[in-house]
Amino acid sequence: LHYPLRRQRQMCIRDRENIDEYDPLNIIDKYGSDALRYTLLTSSTPGLDMNLDPRRLEGARNFTNKIWQAARFVLSNLQSPISNLQPETLNLQLPDQWILSRLKRLIENVTRLFETYQYGEAGRQINDFLWGEYCDWYIEASKVRLYGDEADRDAPLAVLLHVLERALRLLHPFMPFVTEAIWQALPEGVREGETLMLAPWPELDEALLDPEAEERAEDRMELMMDLIRGIRNSRAEYNVTPGKRVPALIAAGDDEAWLAGQRALLCSLAKLDEAQLVIERTLEPPEQVASVVVGDVVCYLPLAGLVDLEAERERLAKNLEEIEGRIVHSEGLLAGEFAQKAPAHIVQRERDKLAELQVERDNLKERLATLA
């Protein structure tokens, strides 16, 4: 008699807890109103109902923090007023041209998406630009000139401010509070008007770059980012200490001239030893190197400069022995009664695991051959 009543009471308590968890006021207390607004705008698809995923709320909150930290970095470098806030009148380098081109493309895309009511996609593209391009690449690239021996501060600071201000205007409909707070902290020569709410929608500034320069800058910067990613992956593969500077030889082909002008940026972002960085049109591949190939550009990382060769051989040999033992065990299972009696999906999972182990074994053998 009492079981149904007790069960109903437990369900009511659980439902009330779920309601409390998804109460908008509780979500705002935990994640912030901007994070909630951004999540609702970017998670929904027209015509479909979707559950509110806490992971999306966490991602939106992290995005808010990322923008805040980026703005703090830019404003902390304004130790004294810069004389020129107009990027088009300054000596722009490759990273400047690239980020301005990416901003122009973002304004085009977001304006088109807003006009067709695709707000979710517009918000995602703004996120990709601010986090993946402005924060992760341009800010890191700007540090080379902001903190270098021959500091050229005006150009990167003007571009940092220009791009941040325009991006805040695009993001304002999604995150009105944090964008307004940051915008109010920008120098008067950068922002227009008294409030971001009344600032005009950003328009394309054709004076910044011509189409040919845009395409060239994007192609070159994409090549350099791929090269840096490849070098970072090689460092991680050989467990190189994160702060260690390593030698590198780059056969750049037709890209030699402009790539040589980016030595400081390459050394900073890929942690290369500038004294041992060689960039030439063609190079004879040395022995015992890790190679990074991006298009027609090949970067050779001498392994002697990356790792202790003898210790690395021992480590790889030990890993290879362990992998081969697991392969023998997996092959034994698939050749015996296991393959006949186990459910089909379990047998397939074992086959997939065996295939992955065989690929890993081949990679280890290849790396050992490189060290021979």
Structure in words:
With 372 residues, the chain is α+β, with helices and mostly antiparallel strands. Helices cover 65% and strands 7% of the residues. The protein contains 15 helices and four strands. The protein has helices at 2-21, 24-31, 33-43, 54-76, 94-115, 119-146, 154-171, 176-185, 211-237, 256-260, 263-270, 303-306, 309-335, 338-341, 344-371; strands at 246-251, 272-280, 289-294, 297-302. Helix 5 (94-115) packs across helix 9. The longest helix is centred in the middle third of the chain and has 28 residues, at 119-146. The radius of gyration is 27 Å and the shape is globular. The model is unreliable at 1-5 (pLDDT under 50).
Secondary structure blueprint with pairings:
Layout: H1 2-21, H2 24-31, H3 33-43, H4 54-76, H5 94-115, H6 119-146, H7 154-171, H8 176-185, H9 211-237, E1 246-251, H10 256-260, H11 263-270, E2 272-280, E3 289-294, E4 297-302, H12 303-306, H13 309-335, H14 338-341, H15 344-371
Helix pairs in contact: 2-3, 3-4, 3-6, 4-6, 5-6, 5-7, 5-9, 6-7, 7-8, 13-15
Which features does this protein show?
disordered N terminus; 372 residues; four-stranded mixed β-sheet; alpha+beta; 15 helices
Q: What is the oligomer described by this structure?
A: single chain
Approximate helicity band = 55-70%
Cα-atom Rg, whole angstroms? 27 Å
**Could you tell me the strand content as a percent range?**
5-15%
What is the overall silhouette?
globular
**SS-based structural class?**
alpha+beta
- Number of continuous helical runs: 15
Distance between the termini: 78 Å
The overall average pLDDT, rounded, is 85
Q: Sheet with the most strands? A: 4 strands, mixed
Name the helix and strand elements from N-terminus to C-terminus, one letter apiece.
HHHHHHHHHEHHEEEHHHH
Q: Enumerate the strands of the largest sheet in spatial order, edge to edge or round the barrel.
A: 2-1-4-3
